[in-house]
Amino acid sequence: EEKEKAKEDEAVAEKKYYALKAAADLYTELNELEQKKIPELSERVTSLEKNIEEENELVEDMEDAAQLLAVNEFEVRQMEKDLDYVDRTAQRMRKHLKIR
């Protein structure tokens, strides 16, 4: 009975050993992955942040260009009005000169 108990204890100890060894191996593997992946992910995050900044700058440039375009369109309309006024004034002057 003692031999049987000793065999059972040995079997349990062996199972515990392999379970602990498997846990230690998993822990080592996890650490290795963290050592490798965290810097990789950090680089990717940094790269994405840089891309976002560049895109934001492009958006700002596009907004500035849109504002300039709006100002230019307004100025063109004003010039068209001024030219129209000059044209009407010139026509009146021609009529006035023809009448005399």
Task: Describe this structure as you would to a colleague.
- The chain is rod-shaped, with a radius of gyration of 42 Å.
- Helices cover 98% and strands 0% of the residues.
- The longest helix is centred in the middle third of the chain and has 98 residues.
Structural class: mainly alpha
**Main sheet characteristics:** none
How helix-rich are the residues, as a percent range? over 70%
Q: What is the chains' assembly state?
A: single chain
The radius of gyration computed from the alpha-carbon positions, rounded to a whole number of angstroms, is 42 Å
Q: Count up the helices.
A: 1
Q: Alpha-carbon distance between the termini?
A: 143 Å
Residue share in β-strands: under 5%
In round numbers, the mean pLDDT is 94
Give the CA-based shape: rod-shaped
Low-confidence stretches: none
In short:
By secondary structure, the chain is an all-alpha fold. 98% of the residues lie in helices and 0% in strands.
Walk me through the topology.
Blueprint: H1 2-99
Which structural traits does this protein have?
100 residues; mainly alpha
